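Whether sequence alone determines local backbone shape is best considered at the level of individual chains. In the encoding step, the backbone of a single protein was reduced to a row of integers, each denoting a local shape. For completeness, the protein is quoted in full, as a sequence line and a line of structure tokens.
***
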Amino acid sequence: MRRRVRHGGDDADVDMTPMLDIVFIMLIFFIVTATFLDETGIDLTQPPPPPNQDNLDDSKSAISVYVDGKNRCSVDGRGSDCDRVVLTVESLLADKPGASIILKVHELADNLYLVGLKDSFDDKGLTSKIEIIKG
């Protein structure tokens, strides 16, 4: 009995069509099931000025936090460490219950301070308003 000897190479082609089908099906699956984050931003619109600027009771019932152009913080005109602003405001709120917090930030100050202070106030449950100081 003779054996058959094959001369020449077998050209075995691999059909890539089923693999491409699976890749497209997986791509469609991941696109459909992906969840996208809905991030909320900070509302930086300034409120309109009050109609009566002569009312001094409003200034007594408000706590003013100021960040200047060199990133130095102050609370009601007294210099404070930017890390301790929230604690200072909380102690002032003990003396002035119901006072509003006005966060005044110079336009040259780093946004890190604006966002950090606003987030800190929000984490403590304190409502604050933002005012951007120009010049």
Q: What stands out?
A: The helical segments are 17-33, 57-60, 85-95, 111-123. Residues 60-133 form a domain with the Nucleotidyltransferase; domain 5 fold (CATH 3.30.420).
